[in-house]
Amino acid sequence: MFLSLLSAPLSLLLPLPLKIAVDSVLGTKPVPAWLTWAAPGGSPMSTLLLAAGLLLAVAILMHLQALASWILQTYTGEKLVLDLRARMFWHAQRLSLSFHTRRGSSDTAYRIQHDAPSIQYVTIQGAVPFLNTNTSSWRER
After folding, report:
1. How far apart are CA 47 and CA 98, in angstroms?
2. What is the pTM assigned to this prediction?
3. Which residues contact 122 (CB under 8 A, 6 or more apart)?
4. What is the maximal distance between C-alpha atoms in the chain?
5. Which residues are CB-contacts of 57 (< 8 A; sequence separation ≥ 6)?
6. The domain containing residue 67 runs over which residues?
7. Kind and range of the H or E element at 29?
8. How many CB atoms lie within 10 A of CB 63?
């Protein structure tokens, strides 16, 4: 959830290179004071290269944030499924033989194999986006 909160500030940085290109390359405004060290001489070509570099840096940061968020969500989801499967298997081993005779061992194995991933879908695809949406709407108030 915290990595997802980084996407908003990174998205706000996207127009900055365009502003620099329009104002300082096409327009007559000087390069912002905090970027004068990166555009020596203030020539239009160096300012344009600076804007392109900033755009590339922001894009890379956004992709790294998305990758880290995806990796963390995948790891968390798979860990939840593994833990639930282990608990279900542990519980199935302690059930009586009459239960397995009545229901069949294939039903229990099916439940362990195919019903356990539902916790991943509920938490990762359901709860995390829901919490992010509610958190962002809370911040807007």
Report:
1. 78
2. 0.66
3. none
4. 85
5. none
6. 2-140
7. none
8. 11
Angle ∠(121,126,132) on CA atoms, nearest 5: 140
How many independent structural domains does the chain possess? 1
Encode the chain (141 residues) as per-residue pLDDT tens digits: 677 778 788 888 888 888 888 887 777 777 776 676 666 666 778 788 888 888 999 999 999 998 998 898 889 889 988 999 999 899 988 988 888 888 888 888 888 888 888 888 787 777 666 766 655 444 444
Give the amino acid at 114.
H
Q: Please name the residues in contact with 40: beta carbons below 8 A apart, sequence gap of 6 or more.
A: 46
The first and second tokens of residue 47, run together, are: 């300012």
Buried b (16+ CB within 10 A) or exposed e, 88-124: beeeeeeeeeeeeeeeeeeebeeebeeebeeebeeeb
